[in-house]
Design a protein that fits this description.
The complex is a heterodimer of chains A (about 325) and B (about 270).
Chain A (H helix, E strand, L loop, with lengths): L6 E12 L2 E12 L3 E5 L6 H9 L6 E6 L8 H6 L1 E4 L11 H11 L4 H14 L15 H13 L5 E5 L7 H17 L3 E6 L2 H7 L2 E6 L2 E6 L1 H6 L5 E6 L4 H10 L3 E6 L2 E5 L6 H10 L4 E6 L4 H11 L10
Parallel strand pairs in A: 3-7, 3-8, 5-6, 6-7
Antiparallel strand pairs in A: 1-2, 1-4, 8-9, 10-12, 10-13, 11-12
Chain B lengths: L6 H16 L2 H24 L4 H7 L1 H6 L2 H6 L4 H13 L1 H25 L3 H5 L5 H37 L9 H25 L6 H23 L7 H24 L3 H6 L2
The chains are: A alpha/beta (about 325), B mainly alpha (about 270).
C-alpha cells in the first residue's frame, strides 16, 4: 500500500445510520499525512463511529472513505495493517501476560518473531512495563493496561493512529502518563493521528485540525486557533485613569458592550468580538481617553466549543452501538 | 476470487484462545469434568451392578428383542452378559457424543461470546485479519480441543469398558470398528454442530453464560438418541454410524455457513 499519498484520510459525504439513528451524517474532511486531527463532541456525537468507519470495521451507509487512497471496506486488511487503534477501554486480554498480548499482536500482523521480540523489549522499556511484562495483565493497574494497549498499537509501527478517548477511563495520574505518550507521538509528526477526545486543552495543544461533531454532523472544522478566533473576546481589560471610568463606560455602552470595574484603574469590557477590538480602541482614543494598557483575553478552543454548544444546544445524544 | 488465508493469523487466534481457555476455570472445569462424568460413570456403574445382573437384562429387554439375528449370534447367551455388551458397545455410544458437543460449545462460547464480554473483541476487529480468518481462528481452537478431548475420552472409556467386560468374564472388545467410526467420523461432526449453534447464538446473546444455556438445545436430541438406543429403535452399527456422521457433517456445514453470514465485523460490532 502506498502510504505516501498527500491525503492520509479523506471522508466525502460519509453517512452511517443505525436503524433510525444517524450516527454520522454527510461528514466531509481530509487529513494530510503527518498531521493530527481532533474529533471533538459529546458522547454519541459520532466520534467512535467515525474512527470505526476509517478503519473499515464499520461500513458507511453512503459516501466515500479513503485511507492512503484505499477504501477501508474493500481493502480492510491492507488499511488495518497500517493503522493502530487505541480505545478508552484497552483491548488487552487479562488472562495473558503483557508479553503474550504483545506477541499475539505481532502474529496478527504477521511480523517476524525475532523482530517482534526485540520490539517488545524496546516498547516495554519506553512504556515502563519491562519489569511487569511477564505478569498476567489482570494484575496491572488501569494505567498500565492502557500503556500496554498503546505498546500493542505501536508494535506494528502503524502509519495512522486512531485514538479514541485514550485517557477517558484513567485516573488523573495514569491519564497524565498516557497523555504524555500520546503527546510525544503527536509531536514527532512521524504518524498521522486522528484523536477523538473530550479534552479541549489536549486538542488545542496536539491537533493541527479539529472537527467538532454534534449528533453526527460536522458543525466546525479547521485549525484550533482559527476556530477560537471566531469567538468574541471574553473580555478586554483596560488600564485607565479612574476619572475616565464613566467616560469609558459611556463609549462601551454606546457600542453595545458591558463594563465591569476590576480594580483601581482597571476596567473590563465584555462581549467584544475579536474583529471589533480595533474599532473600540479607536473610539476610546477619539473620546480623548488616556489608555495606559490594554489586554485582550485570547479566546481558546474551549471558548469556541462552549459558544458553539450555546448556539446549538443539544440534549444528550443517542449513542450508536 | 477468495483471498489467500493468512494461516499465521488463524493459528495465532486459535493458539491464544486455547491459552485463555487453559487459564479459565469456568471453561476448564466443565471441559475436564464432562468427559469423566459422562464416559467413566456409566461403565463403572456396571461394575457396581454385578450383584444384580438380572435387572440389567430386564431393562434392555426391548432392545434385545429388536436385534437382528446375526447380531444376537455374536452376543453371549446369558441375558445379563448380553446386556453388558449391548450397553458398553451400543447404548452408551450416543452418550459419548455429548462430550464433543459440550466441550466444543463451552469453549466456543468463551472464545466467541466471551471475547466480546471481556472487551477484547474490538482489538481483534481492528487487526488486519479478514472476517473469514477471524471466524476460522475462533472455531479452530474449540473444535480441536473437542476432538482431542473426545479422543482421549474414548481411550479412557475403552480402558474402563474392557475392565468391566473382563469382570463379567467377557472378552475385551475395545477398540472396535463402531467406536473407531464414532471417534474419528461422528464426534468431530458433533463438535462442529456445537460450534455452529454457538456462532448462530452469538448473534443474539451477550454473555458466556447466556451462550452456555444454548447448549441445552444440543443435548436434548442426543439424550433422545440414548433412549432410542436403549429402546431398540436405533442401533449404532457401522453403516448407521457412517450415515449418521455424514448427516451431522452436512448439518454442521449448513449451520456454519448460515452462521458465518452473521460473523462480519460490522455486525459483530453493532450487535446490542
Amino acid at each position: 500500500m502506498n502510504t505516501d499519498t498527500t491525503s492520509a484520510v479523506e471522508l466525502t459525504d460519509v453517512t452511517r445510520t443505525f436503524g433510525e439513528l444517524t450516527a454520522v451524517g454527510a461528514m466531509s474532511w481530509s487529513l494530510r499525512r503527518g498531521q493530527v486531527l481532533g474529533l471533538l463532541g459529546h458522547n454519541g456525537a459520532g466520534k467512535t463511529t467515525t474512527l470505526r468507519l476509517i478503519n473499515g470495521v464499520l461500513t458507511a451507509t453512503s459516501g466515500a472513505v479513503r485511507v492512503f487512497g484505499l477504501d477501508p471496506v474493500t481493502h480492510g486488511p491492507q488499511v488495518r495493517r497500517h493503522t493502530g487503534v487505541l480505545l478508552s477501554a484497552p483491548p488487552v486480554d487479562r488472562r495473558l501476560t503483557g508479553r503474550e498480548n504483545l506477541r499475539f499482536a505481532g502474529r496478527l500482523y504477521a511480523l517476524d518473531a525475532a523482530e517482534v521480540a526485540e520490539r517488545i523489549d524496546e516498547l516495554a522499556i519506553s512504556f515502563h512495563l519491562d519489569d511487569r511484562l511477564d505478569e498476567p495483565v489482570e494484575r496491572y493497574s488501569n494505567g498500565m493496561r492502557q500503556r500496554l494497549a498503546l505498546a500493542r498499537v505501536l508494535l506494528p509501527d502503524p502509519s495512522l493512529l486512531l485514538l479514541d478517548e485514550p485517557t477517558a477511563s484513567l485516573d488523573p495520574m495514569a491519564a497524565h502518563g498516557v497523555r504524555q505518550l500520546v503527546r510525544d507521538i503527536a509531536d514527532s509528526r512521524e504518524r498521522t493521528v486522528v484523536l477523538a477526545t473530550h479534552d479541549l486543552i489536549e486538542a488545542t495543544e496536539l491537533c493541527d485540525e479539529v472537527v467538532v461533531l454534534q449528533r453526527g454532523q460536522v458543525v466546525a472544522y479547521g485549525p484550533p486557533a482559527q476556530l477560537a478566533d471566531r469567538v468574541s473576546a471574553r473580555a478586554l481589560q483596560l488600564r485607565i485613569s479612574d476619572h475616565d471610568r464613566d467616560l469609558v463606560s459611556d463609549v462601551a455602552v454606546r457600542l453595545g458592550y458591558t463594563t465591569e470595574p476590576v480594580d483601581i484603574g482597571r476596567l473590563a469590557i465584555h462581549g467584544v468580538a475579536h474583529d471589533a477590538v480595533p474599532a473600540l480602541v479607536r473610539a476610546l482614543v477619539d473620546a480623548d481617553i488616556d489608555v495606559y494598557g490594554i489586554t485582550v483575553d485570547q479566546p481558546t478552543l474551549t471558548d469556541f466549543y462552549l459558544a458553539l454548544h450555546r448556539e446549538r444546544p443539544e440534549t444528550s445524544d443517542a449513542v450508536a452501538p | 476470487m477468495t483471498a489467500r488465508l493468512n494461516t499465521t493469523a488463524v493459528l495465532a487466534i486459535a493458539g491464544r484462545d486455547l491459552r485463555i481457555v487453559a487459564r479459565s476455570r469456568a471453561v476448564l472445569i466443565p471441559t475436564i469434568a464432562v468427559p469423566i462424568v459422562l464416559l467413566l460413570t456409566p461403565p463403572l456403574a456396571l461394575l457396581a451392578a454385578r450383584t444384580a445382573p438380572d435387572s440389567l437384562a430386564t431393562a434392555l429387554f426391548p432392545l434385545l428383542t429388536r436385534l437382528p439375528v446375526e447380531m444376537l449370534d455374536q452376543l453371549p447367551t446369558e441375558p445379563a452378559r448380553q446386556a453388558v455388551v449391548l450397553l458398553l458397545l451400543y447404548v452408551f455410544a450416543p452418550l459419548y457424543l455429548l462430550v464433543p458437543v459440550l466441550v466444543a460449545s463451552v469453549t466456543a462460547a468463551d472464545s466467541v461470546v466471551g471475547e466480546r464480554e471481556r472487551g477484547t473483541l474490538e482489538g481483534l476487529l481492528d487487526s488486519p485479519t479478514t472476517d473469514r480468518e477471524l471466524l476460522i481462528g475462533k472455531l479452530l481452537a474449540p473444535w480441536g480441543m473437542a476432538t482431542v478431548v473426545s479422543a482421549l475420552g474414548a481411550v479412557a472409556y475403552g480402558a474402563v469398558a474392557n475392565l468391566v467386560l473382563s469382570q463379567y468374564g467377557l472378552p475385551r472388545s475395545f477398540p472396535n470398528l463402531e467406536w473407531a467410526v464414532l471417534v474419528v467420523w461422528v464426534a468431530p461432526a458433533a463438535a462442529a454442530i456445537g460450534l455452529g449453534l454457538i456462532v448462530a447464538a452469538s448473534n443474539r446473546v451477550k454473555t458466556f453464560h447466556e451462550a452456555s444455556q444454548i447448549i441445552g438445545i444440543i443435548v436434548l436430541p442426543i439424550v433422545a438418541l440414548v433412549v432410542a438406543q436403549a429402546a431398540g429403535v436405533v442401533l449404532f452399527d457401522v453403516g448407521v454410524l457412517l450415515l449418521f456422521g455424514a448427516a451431522l457433517w452436512l448439518m454442521a456445514v449448513l449451520l456454519l455457513r448460515v452462521s458465518a453470514r452473521g460473523f462480519r465485523r460490522d455486525r459483530l460490532l453493532t450487535r446490542d
